[in-house]
Amino acid sequence: MNASDxxxxxQYIFDQLSQGxxxxxxxxMADTMRWTWMGSGQWSKTFDGKQAxxxxxxxxxxxxxxxPYKVIANRFIADDEYVVVEATGQNTTPDGKxxxxxxxWVCHITEGKLQELNEYMDTQLVTETFQG
Length: 132
Fold this sequence. Notes:
Number of strands: 8
Distance between the termini: 44 Å
Order of helices and strands: HHEEHEEEEEEH
Number of helices: 4
Largest sheet: 6 strands, mixed
């Protein structure tokens, strides 16, 4: 796949995420996918493998946010095997707090599968929402 194909894949995934459908996103993950919350603070972490992504990260998303989980993409930038996505969440916690984090995802895609995702986010918002 080329940059254009990878960009189209991510545009499709985010079109579905904006509607609360995470299945295409999950289906696009390689078994060896690695998802990293970038930084050096308490929220920095790496999830190694699709099972860890789904079992640790995605399971937590499903319990800490009211369904459906929604993320709206604002920009896509593609270069070879990488697609950068700027996005904003449109979510609420079970107790009614708004959680509209802003994200930058740097996605490494080969053969139509997400191999790696480096996530940059507002960690102060995470702390205020989930520890405040």
